[in-house]
Design a protein that fits this description.
Length: about 110
């Protein structure tokens, strides 16, 4: 936890406020708290990561969006909200499937 908090201090310097590194660090710190069964702190870091992502130039980055959405579903599952967790995981899988289809179409056109 201390290392991630130190990383957040470093990445929070001027000019880096919407860096993917900050988003990923909040995500990783949230996962640590989730593993420790500290749902409140895990959700706090999920909200921070999501807020930074939504307000950044990276808001359409499929990897970052999927990462936040997956974390949301994991938190829902850990909180016993299995219905919404399942719906979110299902949406994530459908989105990834569409992305893979587009990737394959582009790949075959290029090669």
């Amino acid at each position: 936890i201390e290392c991630y908090e130190k990383a957040l201090q470093i990445y929070s310097r001027p000019g880096h406020h919407d860096s993917p590194r900050i988003i990923v660090t909040h995500y990783n710190l949230g996962l640590v708290y989730l593993e420790l069964k500290d749902i409140q702190h895990a959700d706090e870091h999920r909200r921070l990561a999501k807020g930074i992502l939504i307000n950044s130039s990276h808001k359409k980055d499929p990897m970052l969006v999927t990462m936040i959405n997956t974390f949301t579903a994991k938190l829902q599952s850990a909180s016993g909200d299995y219905t919404n967790a399942f719906k979110n995981f299902e949406t994530i899988l459908k989105t990834k499937e569409k992305e893979n289809i587009r990737f394959n179409e582009i790949f075959f056109v290029l090669f």
